[in-house]
Design brief:
There is one protein chain. The protein is mainly alpha-helical and 218 residues long. The protein has 8 helices and 3 strands; from the N terminus they run ααααβββαααα. It has a 3-stranded antiparallel β-sheet. Strand 1 and strand 2 form a beta hairpin. 29% of the residues are buried. Bound molecules: fe (ii) ion. The site of fe (ii) ion has 7 residues, from helix 1.
Length: 218
Amino acid sequence: MSTAAMPRPTLWGGEIATIEKKPELLQMEGISAETINNHWKLYEAYVGKWKAIEEQLKGTDLASANQIYSDWRALKTDWTFAVGGVKNHQLYFSNLGGDGSAPTGKLGQYIDAEWGSYDAWKADLKATGMAGRGWAWLAYDWETGRLANYLGDAQNTYPVWSATPLVALDVYEHAYWADFGTDRAGYIDAFLANLDWGWIEQHAEATGILNGAWYDQR
Ligand SMILES: [Fe+2]
C-alpha cells in the first residue's frame, strides 16, 4: 500500500509537544490575552500528563487490571482524558486568531450543502456548545461522507470513530469565565467571530477531506 497520500503525523513517536502559540491569539476581540495565557497552561499540563501516564503504564502490572479499581484502569481511563485534552486544545488554539469571516473555499460549500448557510451552521454549533459540558466539534465523518457538529461532555467523551474534527469549541468555564462570567452564549459568539477559516480550510485540505467528500458527487 502506498503511504504517499497519508498526512504526516503531528504527534509522532512520543515527541508530544505543544504547538506554537500564534501571536494573533493574544490580540483577539472578546477573548482576552490573560484568558488565552491561562488556558495555554492547562493545555501544557495535558501534554505533560500524556507523557507521564505513558511512562507509568510501562511500570504497571497487567495482571492486576480490574474494572472496579486498578492502577491499569485508572491510568488507561485518564490517558484518554489527557490525549483528548491535548488534541482538543491543539485544534481549539489553531482554530482561533482569524477574523471570523465566512469560509469561502470548498469547506464553505460543504457547510452550505449540509446546513443551508454559514449562519445556520453557526447557530447549530452554538446550540451544541450551549448543550455540552466540555466541547462542541465540527467534524467530517468518513463513513457517512458528511459534516456534523458533535457534543462532548469532557476531553474523552463521545468521540465518533472515523470522524476528523475540524473545529473545536471549548465550553469548559475556564475558557470564558474571566471574560464573560456566566454568559457562555456571548463567549461562543466571540469564538465564532475569531475563527481562522484560512487555517481550518488548510487543515481540511491536508487531511484529504476536500478531495473526496461526497458533497462533490451529489
Ligand atoms: Fe480548555
